[in-house]
Design brief:
The complex is a heterodimer of chains A (174) and B (278). Chain A has 6 helices and 9 strands; from the N terminus they run αβαββαβαββαβββα. With 174 residues, chain A is of the alpha/beta class. With 278 residues, chain B is of the alpha/beta class. The chains are: A alpha/beta (174), B alpha/beta (278). Strand 8 of chain A pairs antiparallel with strand 8 of chain B, so a sheet runs across the interface.
Chain lengths: 174, 278
């Protein structure tokens, strides 16, 4: 399970007063239950944000939807929030601004990458007993292997090293 | 046909890339900006735009209306480019959710863009490709670090006009005006053996580049944004996961150097940090 999904589940467990439904790709759902989800919804992994949300909006209604940042897939959590908002008419809110979970909102949980809460060991047995349907991967895109690149190495005087690093930092932080 | 560039959130840096593609295939570049400053809008023309549309977007909700209207009403648009960040992603998602039939492909955080394909690195060893559809409008956010800075040429001509949104959508409402996610800031990560005075210098470097200095500890599990690692000598299994671009400076070769995109060796770490912080 990605770190930002763990952060989203931790936010849900801290603030939710009702049922927490974990929607995701089947391999992560046992961990989701062990981390506090009341029940899982197994979905295929999709390469399109709208196809992805169609799977968990199919037979369910939610009072609010909590999404992790998940920046490293084809679409991010932030994008999913925008798409959900346009489909459901829910407001988009940010976890940092909230003390509780508000109804009719899509909440993006920001993730600073720091230690997340642990799996609740008391929930492991329940997680193992929960039936989870395995689902496939859906999409039209092609994933290719990339040529492995060796790191660029620089050495020289302190001034030369600082200048090369500063140039690169300006480029990646602008 | 036109290539539109959303110029807020440092999106003006994408104008050079847009100009390059437009020149290859004979298209126009349209910059969309919410700035009322004439000088900065004129600069967008100098940076490569043929036309600047000045809209009245004050927040992310307004931006959803502006982009939705543009995508829905303009028939001769090939692609709309956003700078890759959280604000853009929310707006893009909301526009896609409203106008799915007109949009293809939809890709965030792309690293490579040409007139007919767009790609994104998923991790260090795999990349995903999409074809740009000739019939639909591509909605793409580009990593700013993956494009070269646009060239400013004050002899370029173009026009600037107002772009009225009219009724603002009340269906999609986005509450934060700006998000400033901590996850996308530069992290200056310092190794366990780095002394207190060196850490102060590292803080200076972080301050100069709008980031934060953090000593390496087990608490930090993922670094999403760019990272400068200073004298981080730990074994790979003791390091956090690096999702963004990683640069490293150390006094000798360290295990981390195999992960870094740029690895610098210098016996004078403090002096390098002093130079970097001013």
């Amino acid at each position: 399970m990605s770190h930002s999904s763990k952060a989203a589940l931790a936010f849900a467990s801290r603030h939710a007063t009702g049922e927490i439904v974990a929607a995701g790709f089947s391999p992560i759902l046992r961990e989701a239950v062990a981390r506090g989800a009341s029940r899982p919804i197994s979905m295929p992994l999709c390469d399109d944000a709208l196809t992805q949300i169609s799977f968990f909006l199919k037979n369910e209604e939610f009072t609010s939807i909590i999404v992790g940042e998940n920046t490293d897939w084809i679409f991010s959590g932030a994008s999913l929030c925008g798409a959900l908002s346009s489909k459901l008419g829910f407001d988009v809110k940010i976890s940092r601004d909230l003390q509780s979970i508000e109804s009719n909102s899509v909440i993006l949980v920001l993730d600073a990458g720091v230690e997340s809460s642990n799996v609740d060991v008391r929930r492991i047995a329940r997680s193992m007993e929960t039936p989870i349907n395995p689902e496939g991967v859906l999409g039209k895109s092609t994933i290719k292997r990339m040529e492995e690149r060796k790191p660029e190495t620089i050495s020289g005087t302190a001034e030369e090293v600082a200048s090369a690093i500063a140039r690169r930092l300006r480029r990646i932080t602008r | 046909m036109a290539i539109a560039v959303i110029c807020n959130w440092s999106g003006h840096l994408l104008l050079g890339k847009a100009r390059e593609i437009a020149d290859e295939v004979g298209e126009r570049v349209v910059a969309i900006s919410s700035s009322n400053d004439e000088e900065s809008n004129q600069k967008l023309i100098y940076l490569g735009a043929d036309e600047v549309l000045v809209c009245n977007a004050k927040n992310l909700t307004d931006w959803v209306s502006v982009v939705s209207r543009y995508v829905a009403s303009e028939s001769k648009v090939k692609m709309v480019l956003f700078p890759s960040d959280l604000e853009s992603s929310i707006v893009m998602g909301a526009v896609y959710g409203t106008l799915q039939q007109r949009i293809s492909p939809y890709l965030e955080g792309a690293h490579v863009l040409s007139g007919d394909t767009v790609s994104k690195k998923l991790d260090s060893s795999s990349v995903i490709d999409f074809q740009i559809s000739p019939e639909k409008i591509a909605l793409i956010s580009l990593e700013r670090s993956s494009v070269t800075e646009p060239f400013e040429d004050s002899s370029r001509f173009g026009k600037i006009r107002n772009y009225e949104v009219g009724e603002v959508s009340d269906f999609v409402r986005i509450f934060p005006e700006m998000i400033h996610s901590p996850s996308m800031k530069l992290v200056v990560l310092t190794g366990k053996d780095l002394g207190g005075s060196s850490f102060e210098l590292a803080k200076g470097v972080a301050g100069r580049f709008g980031g934060e200095a953090k000593p390496l500890s087990g608490k930090l599990q993922v670094v999403y944004g760019p990272c400068l690692a200073i004298e981080v000598t730990s074994r790979l299994r003791d390091l956090p996961e690096f999702k963004g671009e990683l640069l490293s400076i150390s006094s000798r070769e360290v295990p981390l150097s195999s992960l870094a995109k740029l690895f610098a060796v210098s016996p004078e770490i403090d002096r390098v940090l002093q130079k970097l912080s001013v």
